[in-house]
Amino acid sequence: MPFKNLNGISDKTIDIHWGKLYQGYVKKWQEIQDKLEKIDLTEASTTFSEVRELKVEQSFAANAVLLHEAYFDVLGGGGKPEGRAVEAIARDYGSFENWQENFKALGMASRGWVVLAYDFNDGKLRNYIADAHNLYGIWGASPIVVLDMYEHAYFIDFGSDKKAYIETYFKNINWERIDKKYAKIAANY
Ligand code: FE
Fold it and tell me: Which of 73, 99, 126 is the last residue of a domain?
């Protein structure tokens, strides 16, 4: 696992977060997919129907998996913020520091996730929040820098000190990996 031995985020947190919680989402996503294949579509209803409930929870499980993968992908190695991703961030936020300030503030404001996404609607980078895996996502925006603000991500190591967790998260961001991801995504615009 590339995201162990982090600076300030314990292996215990990662063991629970990646080893148990993330794996649980993966299993549930698969279970929902399997059930959807066998569903009786004639019962479809907006008030209650199996297909409706499965589709709602599919968005919860799928986004949980995708956002967690993006989160763990960001962590580990640290390194200087530089490269095309950082340049694009500065372009769209006035400066890299402005972006950082915005992203950190959103960490204090979000009940679930903070996501810097590449917005395929106009080719710009934007910070978004999500209070649950399947809330407030923007269609056509692809996550690049992802911060998990659920308590399970920081409570063991930081208690209720969210600010300390966010600062530690920034110290662990692997900018080289983000740069590669950004290049791959932006090439499709
Ligand atoms: Fe999480």
Answer: 73
Kindly give the distance from the C-alpha atom of residue 68 to the centroid of ligand 1, in angstroms, as a whole number. Answer: 6
Report residue 95's pLDDT band, with 50, 70 and 90 as the boundaries. very high
pLDDT tens digits for 73-91? 999 988 899 999 999 999 9
Residues 6 or more apart from 27 whose CB is under 8 A from it? none
CA 148 to centroid of ligand 1, rounded, Å: 6
Ligand 1 centroid to 22 CA: how many Å?
A: 7
Question: At what angle are helices 175-186 and 84-93 packed, to 10 degrees?
Answer: 80
Domain that holds residue 57: 11-73
Identify the CATH number of the domain in which residue 88 sits: 3.55.40.20
| Residue 78 belongs to a domain | no
Report if residue 5 sits inside a domain: no
Question: What is the distance in A from the centroid of ligand 1 to the CA of 53?
Answer: 22
Residue 23 Cα to ligand 1 middle (Å): 11
Please state, in angstroms and rounded to a whole number, the distance separating the CA atoms of residues 160 and 113: 16
Residue that terminates a domain, selected from 73, 94, 111: 73
Measure 153 CA to ligand 1 centroid, in angstroms.
6
**How far does residue 74's CA lie from ligand 1's centre (Å)?**
13
Question: 3-class SS at 75?
Answer: strand
pLDDT of residue 110: 98
